[in-house]
Design brief:
Number of strands: 0
Number of helices: 4
Shape: elongated
Strand content: under 5%
Radius of gyration: 15 Å
Helix content: over 70%
Structural class: mainly alpha
Distance between the termini: 14 Å
């Protein structure tokens, strides 16, 4: 297993852990009365969680079977866009959700590693 495949697997596991962290953050934010985000922010954060789990599972699969890495790139791009939208909504609402920013960095790393693994599979 190459270094990039190992990095993809580790980042994918981090995405799964980040998704669990985001679920906990979303539950805590929605149950605390004064810090509850608006409905749109909660929905977008739910999509961030969905893409974190999706990228985590697909990334682990792509690390094991490198041919699948090419299919990971469009999902990662949409995941980055959803993360960016959530960061913008958090800034506009005056809240700071650090876990979303960290998740965006993890997804950027998954994109880079998936691209490298896809190139390796073509050799």
């Amino acid at each position: 297993m190459s270094t990039m495949r190992k990095a993809l697997k580790v980042l994918s596991l981090l995405a799964l852990v980040g998704g669990i962290d985001l679920v906990i953050t979303l539950i805590v934010l929605n149950t605390s009365g004064d810090q509850a985000p608006d409905l749109l922010h909660s929905i977008v954060m739910g999509f961030v969680v969905l893409f974190a789990f999706l990228l985590g599972a697909q990334g682990i699969s792509a690390a094991n079977v490198p041919v699948r890495a090419r299919g990971l790139l469009p999902v990662a791009l949409v995941g980055l866009l959803v993360n960016a939208a959530d960061v913008v909504l958090a800034i506009l609402n005056g809240t700071a959700v650090v876990s979303v920013v960290i998740n965006a960095l993890i997804i950027a790393g998954i994109s880079y590693c998936a691209s490298a693994v896809a190139k390796e599979s073509l050799r």
